[in-house]
Amino acid sequence: MVTYYRWVANDDDLVFRALADPTRRLLLDALFVRDGRTLGGLEREVEMSRFGVMKHLRVLEDAGLVVTRRSGREKHHFLNPVPIRLIHDRWIDKYTETWTGALSDLKQRMESQMEKVFEIYIRATSERLWEAITDPDIRSTYNFGAAIISEWTAGSDYVMRPVGRDFLLGEGKILEVDPPTRLVQSFTALWNDDVRSEGTSRVTWEIEPVGDSCRLTLVHDQMREDANSEIYGGWPMILSGLKTWLETGELLTTPGSLLWASE
Known about the structure:
Layout: E1 2-3, H1 12-19, H2 22-33, H3 39-43, H4 50-62, E2 66-71, E3 74-79, H5 82-91, H6 93-96, E4 115-122, H7 126-134, H8 136-142, E5 146-150, E6 157-162, E7 170-178, E8 182-189, H9 193-196, E9 200-210, E10 213-221, H10 230-233, H11 235-248
Helix pairs in contact: 1-4, 5-11
């Protein structure tokens, strides 16, 4: 079971307010070091009551900076870098271009865990969002120039290939497909020997309509604890690009989108 609190892209004030408190920054730092902690684990990081930690976590959840997932009776907390990525794109990219890409490596620099959770709200119908995820031409506009080619049926294969290139960046199988709400894929990264040696992980897309928007949750799991962060570190840029394209029709320049620009 996944527990979420509402966050939309216009709530920049919530993000800045959440980051303004040193205790909340300390909690985020703790999740930066080791993701998926329980309330008890986070309570040991700060000198305050359990109730106080819960209040701070609620502020972080309301701002979308922390997402939670239940495992049995325990609730695990995960750092969600997407709001930070969107603020970065809005306030920094226009001034500093590619060198500020180092700031977007927040998720990549995190200590690897078995599960990474990302959440974003996008103003689009679930059908339109599903199309943007599964259509190879649309996917390549925000997926670092790579198209995903598949029949999109349970058990079918897929490949990830840069448009106009004859090599693969990734491959896998479609494990579950329930348009337009749920898609589960296995994923094997192929872009270099280091990520290829990590083997196969799993990516789950969950779409939930919310008024005139959709909540998109992406869960990347079944990774070994020391997995190469390149495997999951690009998701904040991909999701930001997806949101920008669906809501404005424009392409978002990120460090990832420039990978193939000069080749």
